């Protein structure tokens, strides 16, 4: 039999990016972005940007000035309508969002880079600083001419939004003394709070940053939504839940329970963090009930949800003019995602409400619903802080259950839909990259990461960093032995799920399917005969690698501008991306049993018709989709585990395999 050894480099869809050498024009734009976002609550300091600002006059540029947005923006500025610089910007406040969107639209309409940066410098010190940062960064992520530019890590632009008050206070002290410092950050809560055991996940700064960037790549308020944005809203949050529940199980905790609008919110949360202006994020005691807000009552939430449930059960949603949109195709989840979020693509927000967005607001304001005590917004009102609160996962479990209700009404996949005739997986194994690795055993551990706090304090630069503990894992590779009766190509999908539940009972496949953690999704050419495919963990398209720190980005860009270093531009670079460190759940010191599933399907059927037989997909595809155009994989997200599996014994055909793996968490 012919044997083909196929390494990751021959994959059709691979994680390898197209790189090109950065020229001086690109590097100077990169530096402008980095300087613009430094010390954002202080006036602009960089001489080059001050010079750009002094030469920019929106009224002089007739083409630019004629656009509706710039007239609108100038009207807001000149008539003092913008919110004060020190006010706390909330995306969930309709007026504040509208102002931000005017800026966003203007930045998107800027006809070239000079206009874009000119306008950014012109507005920076006139607007609320977080409102500006959000509008500017979101525009940068969506403009074609900004592809490849890197934003600094979100937690180093506005550290207050990611770190606890004690860390910030110690950073101030170090700054005043002019002494470099490394400040350890603890997770919030105490041993008396069981949720503390999994705080390392919800409070992971990389996770928070990913979540913030996801919502900037797919803003619910943007006029044109990307391909399958509603489905990605479902799937990305669904995967976060599967990961969170696996962390809970690793720590001997049951799966997170969904919230109910008329029941107490069992876990309280004390964020121990403060806004840059000093206002403390409000705490929520245990067992409080949802409260009516001026803009949304609990009764309305219950009513909207009843309408959504009726629509799910009927399999049809009616748009504003009464036209039915059926949910029973593979498009249904996308329609439902937009409706539940709700985004601008919602079929009818007036009738079906905005369950998810309003729930964030209800949770954020629960301790002071009428504004009687002047509390600032809670952590649930900002995407960069929301996952810290255990209620985030409870809310999303509730929303996820609505998606499940819909998926469970769809017919199970038929043999034809999940089989791949002529292709058989003979063997599948995982191998740890460290020499001491045992077969099919994966290793996790906690390590330390440094966060630059330069933007948390003002004054002469002093090297002040926070050190945080974070989950990580040893690299591994997955090796599949596949026999094919022809030359063909496959989509390879790999999922992980706990083997035993909280009670120690083996989890049946029809339940495990909803807890599947996607580990990788790639394509492979198969030759007739035997093929051995090796895929390394760092190549996965589920996660992204660590971002470069703010000072390192500045240093690297400066060195390249001086001709002392070479920087490569990756036009498909994404800021959205689940941290690669978190690819695997923690597991347990003595080892925790998981099942690892691999499923091959026919690439020629699965690949979007816009692609021929070759595409190059960057990292982060699974959670963050693509920058432009169609999502390359036409199967529903989570396929083939997104639908009921009534006959598990028949589910695994030759093209699928499951193996036992053990995840051990070790001390280093
Ligand atoms: Cu990401 Cu609720 O959608 O936080």
CATH class term of the largest domain:
Mainly Beta
How far is the N terminus from the C terminus? 45 Å
CATH topology of the largest domain: Immunoglobulin-like
Query: Do you know the CATH architecture of the largest domain?
Result: Sandwich
- Structure classification: alpha/beta
Number of structural domains: 3
Q: What is the name of the CATH superfamily of the largest domain?
A: Hemocyanin, C-terminal domain
> Percent of residues in helical segments?
25-40%
Strand content: 15-25%
The low-pLDDT segments are: 7-16
Average residue pLDDT: 92
| Helix segment tally | 23
Strand order of the largest sheet: 3-8-7-17-16-10-11
What bound compounds does this protein have?
A: CU2-O2 cluster
Using only C-alpha atoms, the radius of gyration works out to: 25 Å
Please tell me what the overall shape is.
Answer: globular
Largest sheet: 7 strands, mixed
């Amino acid at each position: 039999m012919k044997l083909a050894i196929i390494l990751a480099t021959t994959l059709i869809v691979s994680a390898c990016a197209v790189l090109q050498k950065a020229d001086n024009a690109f590097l100077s734009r990169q530096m402008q972005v980095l300087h613009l976002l430094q010390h954002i609550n202080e006036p602009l300091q960089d001489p080059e940007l001050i010079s750009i600002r002094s030469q920019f006059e929106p009224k002089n540029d007739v083409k630019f000035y004629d656009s509706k947005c710039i007239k609108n923006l100038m009207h807001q500025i000149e008539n003092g309508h913008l919110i004060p610089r020190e006010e706390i910007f909330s995306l969930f406040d309709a007026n504040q969002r509208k102002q931000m969107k005017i800026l966003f639209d203007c930045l998107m309409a800027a006809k070239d880079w000079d206009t874009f940066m000119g306008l950014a410098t012109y507005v920076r010190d006139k607007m609320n600083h977080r409102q500006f940062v959000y509008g500017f960064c979101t525009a940068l992520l969506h403009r074609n001419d900004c592809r490849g530019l890197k934003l600094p890590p979100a937690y180093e632009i506005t550290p207050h939004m990611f770190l606890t008050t004690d860390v910030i206070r110690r950073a101030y002290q170090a700054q005043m003394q002019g002494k470099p410092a490394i400040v350890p950050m603890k997770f919030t809560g105490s041993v008396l709070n069981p949720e503390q055991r999994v705080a390392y996940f919800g409070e992971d700064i990389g996770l928070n940053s990913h979540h913030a960037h996801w919502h900037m790549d797919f803003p619910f308020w943007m006029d044109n939504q990307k391909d399958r944005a509603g489905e990605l809203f479902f799937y990305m949050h669904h995967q976060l839940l599967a990961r969170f529940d696996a962390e809970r199980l690793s720590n001997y905790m049951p799966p997170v329970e969904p919230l109910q609008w008329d029941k107490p919110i069992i876990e309280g949360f004390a964020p121990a963090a403060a806004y840059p202006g000093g206002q403390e994020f409000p705490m929520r005691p245990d067992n409080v009930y949802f409260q009516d807000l001026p803009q949304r009552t609990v009764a309305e939430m219950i009513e909207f949800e009843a309408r959504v449930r009726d629509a799910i059960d009927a399999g049809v949603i009616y748009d504003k003019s009464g036209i039915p949109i059926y949910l029973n195709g593979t498009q249904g989840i996308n329609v439902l995602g937009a409706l539940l979020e709700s985004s601008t693509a919602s079929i009818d927000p007036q009738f079906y409400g905005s369950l998810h967005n309003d729930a964030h607001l209800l949770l954020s304001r629960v301790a002071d619903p009428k504004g009687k005590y002047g509390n600032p917004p809670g952590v649930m009102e900002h995407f960069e802080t929301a996952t810290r609160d255990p209620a985030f996962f409870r809310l999303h479990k509730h929303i996820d259950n609505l998606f499940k209700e819909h998926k469970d009404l769809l017919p199970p996949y038929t043999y034809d839909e999940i089989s791949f005739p002529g292709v058989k997986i003979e063997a599948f194994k995982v191998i740890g990259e460290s020499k001491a690795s045992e077969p099919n055993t994966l290793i996790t551990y906690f390590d330390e990461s440094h966060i630059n706090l330069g933007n948390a304090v003002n004054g002469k630069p002093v090297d002040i960093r926070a050190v945080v503990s974070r989950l990580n894992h040893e690299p591994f590779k997955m090796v599949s032995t596949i026999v094919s009766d022809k030359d063909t190509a496959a989509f390879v999908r790999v999922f992980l799920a706990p083997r035993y539940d909280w009670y120690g009972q083996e989890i049946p496949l029809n339940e495990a399917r909803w807890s599947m953690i996607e580990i990788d999704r790639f394509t492979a050419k198969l030759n007739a005969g035997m093929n051995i495919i090796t895929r390394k963990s760092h190549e996965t398209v589920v996660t992204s690698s660590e971002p470069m720190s703010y000072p390192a980005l500045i240093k690297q860009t400066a060195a390249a501008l001086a001709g002392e270093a070479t920087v490569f531009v990756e036009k498909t670079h994404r800021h959205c991306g689940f941290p690669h460190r978190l690819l695997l759940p923690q597991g347990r010191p003595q080892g925790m049993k998981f099942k690892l599933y691999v499923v091959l399907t026919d690439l020629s059927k699965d690949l979007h018709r816009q692609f021929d037989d070759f595409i190059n997909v960057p990292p982060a595809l699974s959670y963050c989709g693509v920058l432009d155009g169609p999502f390359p994989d036409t199967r529903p997200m989570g396929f083939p585990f997104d639908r009921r599996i009534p006959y598990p014994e028949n589910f695994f055909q030759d093209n699928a395999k499951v193996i036992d793996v053990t995840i051990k968490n070790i001390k280093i």
